[in-house]
Amino acid sequence: LWRCIHGHDALILQKKGKMINEKYVSFIPEYLDLCKERGIRKVDDLDITWLKEEYLEVCAGEETKTTVVGMTATRCHAPHLMWDREWFEHPVKLPFENTTVNCPGEYEKVLEREYGDWRTPVMGSSEHEMFAVDTETPWKSYLKDL
């Protein structure tokens, strides 16, 4: 089913005239075959909820080991969110602030896949960064500081 999801993505990008991962292009026929098998007519539709539901059913019912793991909170099949299972087989505890965090044994490979050059600091704000405001000051005066 992963290959079908990748095939769908390639089909949509192709339709939009955008650059496509060649490997994904090779999966388009599998996606089209599955659509035909399931009686899906709008094969280039953005909505592939049916395919993702089928994928989740397979994941929930399969007892076999996979070679790939991924983050399923968002577009779980994004390449930077897919990691080799073996990277997680021997977890390690790493210090973080005033605690320790369980991490994949090959955490550097996970970070590399997700962020690229994660060792080079990037100047920018954090998602957790906040600033204090005075409720008596008009909010528009804060906009010039942003």
Number of domains: 2
Give the quaternary arrangement of the chains.
single chain
Distance between the termini: 44 Å
Structural class: alpha+beta
Strand content: 5-15%
The topology string of helices and strands comes to HHHHEEEEHH
Radius of gyration based on Cα positions: 21 Å
Number of H- or I-type helical stretches: 6
Secondary structure tally: strands: 4
For the sheet with most strands, the description reads: 2 strands, antiparallel
Q: What is the overall pLDDT average?
A: 75
Helical content band: 25-40%
C-alpha geometry: extended
Low-confidence stretches: none
Q: How are the strands of the biggest sheet laid out side by side?
A: 1-2
Quick synopsis:
By secondary structure, this protein is an alpha+beta fold.
